[in-house]
Amino acid sequence: MSALKASIDYKSLEKELHAALAADELYKLQNDAKIRAIEQAVPTYEHFRQMVHGAHLKPLDRNDMKPKIGVQWNPLINSAKSHDSTVLEALKKSTRNKDSNESILKKSRKTCKDFLQSWKTITDHSEKFTYVWNLRNDLQHHVFWVEIPTSFLGDFANACLQHLSKVDDITPVIEVLGKLSTCNRFDLTVCFMTRDEKSMCERLFRQLQLKGKSDESFKSTIKSLAAKYQVNLD
């Protein structure tokens, strides 16, 4: 049978078409990411590479972090829903009773969604910082093992800034910022931060620099950490 008389495999052609369209779309996204990286003057090639390779990814927005009312994430465990409600209610009470805050945090589940739900129930900035501080060793491998939502990074910088207005010890803030910088796709998260969020980070590091100026050991640490957040302190 000649090639002209052979039956046409429409499914195969459709797959090839979709693959070609996807490849073309990816090329456009990566090309736009390259241009954006150059315009933003990313500090290293690694930042550039991650920004290009993650061009097809979309950061979590604020709607993604809102609790899903009526959704049962694990239908096999009937007690999970009541457990979450108990934890959230306890965290609300913790804003009125600082003494109970630490014990409540130990009960909080360490998934990103649960973490963010609890984070939003806390209104006091110092308590927000304490909440993250108590979970600092779980941030990289449990809470933000996929990525850090961009909006959280800006909110946390604000919480740290407000917290520093009440305390003199900057060591805990530096430690948590360092822990966050080791999380997966951190460089990509920083690249996607808004101008206001980046400005908040710069204000935070300026405040750290001001409070730590009397201690030589802090200067290089703060400067190198600021560079990871794409903040230039020179």
How would you describe what is shown here?
By secondary structure, the protein is mainly α. It folds into two domains: 10-56; 61-228, no CATH class. It has twelve helices and no strands. It has helices spanning 10-40, 45-53, 79-94, 101-107, 112-121, 125-134, 139-143, 150-164, 171-180, 186-191, 195-211, 216-228. The longest helix is centred in the first third of the chain and has 31 residues, at 10-40. It starts with 9 loop residues before the first helix and ends in a 6-residue tail after the last helix. Residues 73-84 and 102-109 have low confidence and may be disordered.
Brief rundown of the structure:
The chain has about 230 residues and is mainly α. About 65% of the residues lie in helices and about 0% in strands.
What is the helical fraction, as a range of percent? 55-70%
The backbone outline, from C-alpha atoms, is: elongated
Task: Quickly give the structural class.
Answer: mainly alpha
> Total helix count?
12
Mean of pLDDT:
77
Strand content: under 5%
Function: Dynein-attachment factor required for cilia motility.
Domain Dynein attachment factor N-terminal: 8-74
InterPro entries: CC103, Dynein_attach_N, RPAP3-like_C
Pfam families: Dynein_attach_N, RPAP3_C
